[in-house]
Amino acid sequence: MPIDLPPTARALAAHLHERLRERWQGLPDADTGTPTLAFHAAPVPDDLPGHRAELIVEASDLHALRRAMTSDADAVVIDFDDTFSPTRENVQAAYDALAWATATEKPLLVRTRALYATEPHLDFGGPGIAALCDLSAVLAARPERPPHLYIPKLETVAEAQFWHDALSLAEAYLNLPADTIRVCLQIETYAGLLNAAALLQAMHSRAYGLNAGRWDYVFSLVKHLGRTRTAPVPPRSQLTMDVPAMQAYAEHLVAVCRQHGAEAIGGTASLAPDPEHPQPALDAVRMDKEREAAQGFTSAWAGLPELVGAVRAGIAAQSKATPQSASLTAPLEGRCPGGAEGLTGHGDPSTLTETLTDLPTPTSIPLAELRDSISLALDVFAAWLGGRGVVVRHGRVEDTATAELARALVWQWVRVGAALDDGTALTPERYMNERRAVMPDNAGAARLLDHLVLSPDCPAYFPHEAQRLFPDLFPGPTSLQE
């Protein structure tokens, strides 16, 4: 059964698909951009206060949506991406909820699905382009005052230009002034970081900031390094923001923002506090956001309403010393590898790229880390296939991003035959034994993880692979983008 879209949303989606489908089929174009230095990002929208805590909420979780709208968050992010399982029921529920969710007076942002994703329950001369379907539903729900957008998983200038043109077409269709729809670009891939200034320039008339997506970025980095690296990459517990490669990621993002007057927005606080003893988790969140504030980030995300206060307190730690307006252009005092300009100006690109890719090499992979990575991926995949995009395990909120990282780590360790701390090596057979100890072969999540881990190359995104492996869960047009 196809998804039921309101007439305005369906007409807008049809218009966008007619104008853009052929171009979309050519993405991602592996271009790299060299921006001119003479551009300035769009100003931060007036309704987004400085040093704010934005609460991210899964688009089809109606209880969480209602709770978010009455929370003390400074803004709410309705998410169709990492926390979202795109079953037909969920997409329909999320689109239906937009009518009342967008009626809020609270500052509202929406993250659509990424450009790789398709929507098989809608047919516009082929399966719907999920990003355009989500965009049409969102804009039709509140055309007179469109929510701001987060643009996920950008990598190339061609993708940024596609998005800008799609938004311009939507504005013209809805009789909105040019650049009414304001956006923040998510820098959550390795290629996206290298192209950050060029991506910002491509959308600078409407893009007001860049957002750090830590786990998506590490996932992308593991995929990139997996092509050539012969040593194992560290487990997730060792990929902290104290690692020089991760510091370089954050500081380069901030450097690009400051060079072009954009806002730098930090990552998601995803600890799940113990209801009886919440303070340790809240203190950890506050300290992490204080670190981001010291690096130059002026806002950040909370993954749960309980974390909003800790995020706000941490991100505001530098506010008295550096107001937001000043922080958009304040120098980084030479901390960014290759200079504060990073890859955007006079810094040495080779220095930055060497630092970004110089992950430490562990002596061995702890067996406990391997087993946790396998279990995490299986837990999230099972939930996702069942219609839930988020799980809470071991005191953390886990979603698509962390599951992608977990499966990529296991893929890379298997590929290089990583040494385990029990004195053995991780072979495909050993992986299968460990996975079977957690879940049987016939389980959907197990089939998906086996496919991802044992592939010669690291598949790009698991939701795309899941649509191919489980067509019964995603019936509809089958000509998915290659």
Give the class from helix and strand content and strand pairing.
alpha/beta
Tell me the CATH superfamily of the largest domain: Malate synthase, domain 3
Q: What is the percent of helical residues? A: 40-55%
Number of domains: 2
Largest sheet: 8 strands, parallel, barrel
Strand order of the largest sheet: 1-2-3-6-7-8-9-10
Q: In words, what does this structure look like?
A:
By secondary structure, this protein is α/β, with parallel strands linked by helices. It has two domains: 7-356, Malate synthase, domain 3 (TIM Barrel, Alpha-Beta Barrel); 367-469, Malate Synthase G, Chain: A, Domain 4 (Up-down Bundle), CATH 1.20.1220. It is built from 18 helices and twelve strands. It has helices at 7-24, 62-69, 88-101, 130-141, 157-173, 190-194, 196-202, 214-226, 244-260, 279-295, 308-315, 324-327, 349-357, 367-385, 400-416, 428-436, 444-454, 462-469, and strands spanning 53-58, 75-79, 108-111, 118-123, 127-129, 148-151, 183-187, 207-212, 263-269, 299-302, 391-393, 396-398. An eight-stranded parallel barrel has the order 1-2-3-6-7-8-9-10, surrounded by five helices. A two-stranded antiparallel sheet has the order 4-5. A two-stranded antiparallel sheet has the order 11-12. α5 packs parallel to α7 (196-202) and α8 runs parallel beside α15 (400-416). The longest helix has 19 residues, at 367-385. The radius of gyration is 21 Å and the shape is globular. The relative contact order is 0.12. The model is unreliable at 333-346 and 478-482 (pLDDT under 50).
